[in-house]
Design goal:
By secondary structure, the protein is mainly α. The chain contains eight helices and no strands.
């Protein structure tokens, strides 16, 4: 078949069938040729980046709450007004921390301390019926041991510590009289009469 005839037949086939006939067919590779190998750089798995993200650390635990600070046990002797104010502040903060009302009538607490112990946290009553019964009144507010133990707060266990003494005395006064302002001795003095123990 001549080239002219082949071209004519090809043209006729295109016109009649409406299809295109490839003019060039790529040669097949020889049978012993190996298929191209994928390298690690061109493998499909390498296309997707694999990153390991560590879980975020747990938030730190909140600090364990601790009671408000208090002064160390002072030396025995009559306290100054500034010391008494600080101890009343510390006792009030401890009451609030334990869910009780703060001390609002500070003058009443000052008055009780002045008449009960003259402001000496080491005071011991050695003359009344409690003394004769073997349970003398002790400390800044002058409580007997059973009363102090009943009204102390956790963390404030020392009857001679002024803050612990104020806490127990205020809690006792509130339970028995309604408030520190209504302690009979406080009421009496404020009404021009003599102090009476509580």
């Amino acid at each position: 078949m001549t080239r002219r005839r082949s071209a004519a037949l090809l043209l006729i086939a295109v016109l009649l069938g409406g299809t295109t006939v490839p003019l060039f067919i790529a040669p097949r590779p020889p049978p012993d040729a190996e298929a191209p190998r994928l390298t690690s750089a061109s493998s499909p798995a390498s296309v997707v980046a694999t990153t390991t993200t560590a879980a975020p650390p747990d938030p730190p635990s909140p600090p364990t709450p601790t009671p408000p600070p208090r002064d160390p046990m002072p030396a025995c002797g009559v306290a100054t007004a500034a010391q008494l104010d600080r101890w009343i502040d510390q006792a009030s903060a401890a009451l609030v921390w334990h869910g009780h009302a703060p001390i609002t009538d500070r003058a009443a607490v000052h008055l009780i301390i002045a008449y009960e112990s003259s402001g000496n946290p080491c005071a011991i009553n050695e003359w009344d019926s409690n003394w004769r019964a073997g349970i003398p009144s002790k400390g800044l507010i002058q409580a007997i041991d059973p009363t102090f133990q009943a009204w102390q707060l956790p963390g404030y266990p020392d009857i001679y510590h002024p803050v612990d003494s104020i806490i127990a005395g205020v809690r006792y006064a509130r339970n028995r009289y309604g408030s520190e302002s209504r302690v009979p001795g406080v009421v009496n003095v404020r009404n021009g009469r003599g102090y009476v123990g509580y």
